[in-house]
Amino acid sequence: MFSVIIPGRPCLTEIVTIDAQPNLPPTNFVFTFPANPTFNHIVVFLLPGTVLPPDTAATIYMKLPESKPSPSGPQFRFLGAIGNEKPSAIFKIRAGDVQEQARPTEEEEEDEMLDEDASRIKGMRNENVTLGISIEPTHSVIAQLAALNASSSGSSTALVHQTPLQKQITVKVLAQRIITNAFNFLASFAEPDPKRGGEEIVTLKSFREWWSKFERRLDVDPEFLEREDPGRG
User: Can you give the residue ranges of the Hikeshi-like N-terminal domain (predicted)?
Assistant: First the structure.
């Protein structure tokens, strides 16, 4: 159902089903892979042909080894979610996720400054990372995503900020918003044509100016058309 890509490594396809219930489809899965070589990003996606049950999404969790084990042991961290509407996502693994430990002493901080990379993988050379995937109800996933965004002050670990749970606009509505944006911009350039009985016309130059401005806005704010009021051109 799922696969994982870590840059520089082979695609992961060996998934393990856990906590399966008799006569019910599995909902919990695990990938296990070495912590080394170190990595900063991970891609999780649905395999072609995979369709999740209605009103569900797949939540992604990661458990990393600790350089200094805590009494409770390594904990799973919620990274984000994917779903039928958005079948893949790229997640950034923060430095704080890679090295879970107590507050370092001044001497340890000096060592880290001298050899940050060695410090980051200390104690993890032969350990594994566990990536958990759980199929959960949409309303539960929405709550977890909201909590993740709140705790990270808007800088989620997900590089792809649009979640699979956001309301998807239809092609018709999207087309209407593009046309409205173009009309609002081009209307100010319309001039009456005496040869056509005063009918207002717009030059191709004005259209090219709108298209150039429209593309620049998409680069700056790719999701502006998805909002209920995408604004004027």
Answer: 5-151
Q: Where are the alpha helices (DSSP H) in the chain?
A: 95-98, 106-114, 116-121, 138-151, 171-186, 204-220
Phi, psi of 78 (to 5 degrees): -80, 125
Within a 10 A sphere around the Cβ of 42, how many other Cβ atoms?
24
The token pair that represents 31 in the structure block:
């990938």
Query: Which two three-digit tokens encode residue 56?
Result: 């569900």
Please state, in angstroms and rounded to a whole number, the distance separating the CA atoms of residues 117 and 171: 47
**What residues does each domain of the chain span?**
2-151, 171-226
pLDDT digits (tens, 9 = 90+) for 98-146: 433 334 444 544 454 444 444 444 444 568 999 999 999 998 888 888 8
Place of tokens 């209307």: 187
Q: What would the pLDDT profile of 45-95 be if each residue is shown by its tens digit?
A: 999 899 999 989 999 999 987 655 555 556 889 999 999 988 999 888 864
